[in-house]
Each structure stands twice: as structure tokens, then as C-alpha cells.
């Protein structure tokens, strides 16, 4: 199946967003990027993937200072990137990589503020995946091997971290419907059914 769009997927923790994005990319026969971006950033920077993985999608407060003193430019990168915390270095590298990939190919990407990074790209389709708290807790226990006694707290904490990350780097509110083209409640549907919904939406766009 051909695709002339880049699909960004923002997701609540435990909503199945990763699985949906991966299945969608496979169906469309286009690349899928999630943790793969960590590997690409590590390769470009020489920093260990394990170090980046620890801070992935977690914000710091340092970038505001960096912006205020003019160290950062999206076109040219950081002139003093080595002075920044690992969180900010990873975000900057992933930002750069996502924009470079968008110039060469269509793909599905999960998280990393990709909808914001590619906000000026005319081929972007922004999807938000959410689900009720009970189903997300169950998924966290079943698939993430999280202790049932602390699963709900872990889910809420993960969502808060994603919201802070998105808000810090984009200046927008995470999960707000206005920021997306399509919002899908995955509570009562399968991964394949969610993929079919997205494919139907893409088909509608292609017919315009």
C-alpha cells in the first residue's frame, strides 16, 4: 500500500500507541521510528545508546537558558552542545534527524515531539492514541511487567513525564485535541482495528 504522508503518533502510556504505529508502518510498507531514533542519535553523537535511553522523552530546564543566550539554532545545531545536559542533546539530535528523514522519505514516528518538529511539513498527519486508565494499567501489567500494586501510579507518572517533555520543547499542551488531526480511543479496539481507522483517514485525505 502506497503512502505519501508522514504519520506522527503521540500516545498515552499503555494505550498501545507503539504497537499501532509499528503495525501501521508495516501495512504501509514504510519505515517506523521509535527507539530507533535513539540508535541514530547515538551513532551521530558518539554517546552510548544506553545513556540516551535513560533520558529519552524526559525534559530538563536547561534549554530555556540555551535559547536565551542564543546557543541553539534549529538549522545549524548547537555551537556548544557539549555544555548541555544529555536530555537536551538527545532532543536536539532527534529533532535534526526527524527533519532530515522527512526530506527523504515517508515514515511513521512515535513520540519525540515529532508533530511539533514537522509542524510546517504539508505531508504530516498527526495522530493521538489514548485509552481509559483501567485498560492502560492492565496493559502495563501484562506487557511491561510492572508490579500490579504500583501500575496505576506508574502509568500516571509516565503520562506526566510525556506531558512535561512535550510542553517544554513544543510550548503546547500534550494530549489537546486541537494539536492533532485524528484522536483514537484504543480502549475497546484492537491494534489492527486502530490501524484500519488510520488507513481509512489517510484514504479520505488521498481522495481530496
The CATH homology group name: P-loop containing nucleotide triphosphate hydrolases
CATH architecture assignment: 3-Layer(aba) Sandwich
Structural class: alpha/beta
- What coarse outline follows from CA principal-axis ratios? globular
Q: Major beta sheet, specifics?
A: 5 strands, parallel
| Unreliable residue runs | 65-80
Give the helix tally: 9
Elements, N to C (H/E): EHEHHHEEHEHEHHEH
Number of strands: 7
- The total domain count is 1
What name does the CATH topology carry?
A: Rossmann fold
Q: Class in CATH?
A: Alpha Beta
Overall pLDDT metric: 84
Tell me what the structure shows.
- With 208 residues, the chain is an alpha/beta fold.
- The protein has one domain: Rossmann fold.
- 50% of the residues lie in helices and 12% in strands.
- Strands 2-5-1-6-7 form a five-stranded parallel sheet. The chain has a two-stranded antiparallel ribbon with strand order 3-4.
- α1 packs across α9 and α2 packs across α5.
- The longest helix is centred in the last third of the chain and has 20 residues.
- The radius of gyration is 17 Å and the shape is globular.
- About 8% of the residues have low confidence.
What is the topology?
Blueprint: E1 6-11, H1 17-28, E2 32-33, H2 36-45, H3 49-55, H4 62-68, E3 72-73, E4 77-78, H5 86-102, E5 108-110, H6 114-117, E6 124-130, H7 133-144, H8 151-170, E7 182-185, H9 191-206
Helix pairs in contact: 1-9, 2-5, 7-8
Q: Characteristics of this structure?
A:
two-stranded antiparallel sheet, about 210 residues, alpha/beta, Rossmann fold, five-stranded parallel sheet
